[in-house]
Amino acid sequence: MAVCIAVIAKENYPLYIRSVPTEDELKFHYMVHTSLDVVDEKVSALGKALVDQRELYLGLLYPTEDHKVYGYVTNSKVKFVMVVDSSNTALRDNEIRSMFRKLHNSYTDVMCNPFYNPGDRIQSRAFDNMVTSMMIQVC
Amino acid sequence: MSRQANRGTESKKMSSELFTLTYGALVTQLCKDYENDEDVNKQLDKMGYNIGVRLIEDFLARSNVGRCHDFRETADVIAKVAFKMYLGITPSITNWSPAGDEFSLILENNPLVDFVELPDNHSSLIYSNLLCGVLRGALEMVQMAVEAKFVQDTLKGDGVTEIRMRFIRRIEDNLPAGEE
Predict the structure, then answer these.
(1) Which of B32, B117, B118, B127 is the mutation pick for testing A, counting most A CBs within 10 A?
(2) Predicted complex: ipTM over 0.95
(3) Which CATH superfamily is domain B16-117+125-170 in?
(4) In chain B, where do the E strands start and end?
(5) pTM for the whole thing?
């Protein structure tokens, strides 16, 4: 379903970014990069309300002609960005939410790996496989 | 004092995440302190041994198991009582050698490795080697010299974790005079 999945650190550098190999990788990098501003905007605008509801899902950040960009930010300000093909109209908000939830759980497991140093790029095979499964589902 | 009072057959609850992460921190720190994996394995075994020689006292006090008459009985106690008490798992015992002096403990899920993924540069690290040391140390204190080693490990891509135990000999010399 997803065509690109990225994990961005608190300081806005990428911890992990993967996109489907069939398309131009750089295009997605741009898209994710652009979305960070929207994430910041949303977080500061909704900041208080989000904290109160403990809601981590930010919803649709912005649509482009071919894609939709969704965001999710953890309590430690790590951002997850997911780019979805907009031709895929069957994908509902709830499913996106559950995909982020899955991503978050997997990310938590990576953080708990004693051999992972926080702040490094994520190279975990388990995380990689999970992301792959999320990208294949749709394509 | 209060610790002594708490000591009974009931097991104390503890967060498994805290335990797993503590062990992980220990192993990674050792990896930083030592140059190669062999040294880390050795160090883990040594630490386990030191734990084992103490833990056996606690185990005997809490479990009320009596003297084992043969190695098979020992294996049963280790798997069904000791592992259950300290790690909350019950490994299965298989692959007895014909002579009855070797067996395997199969751990379906090893609580020590819950979140762990071995990085490529630590391919010869035996992550849970502490357990071997514990088994060796504990059994040594009850007059049994054994050898314990990992032959399969889920971290290395095997389906299960397997600890191979081999009975070497009875240690007779420090049996107090007058017993038996």
Answers:
(1) B117
(2) no
(3) Trafficking protein particle complex subunit 3 (3.30.1380.20)
(4) 92-94, 102-107, 144-152, 161-170
(5) 0.79
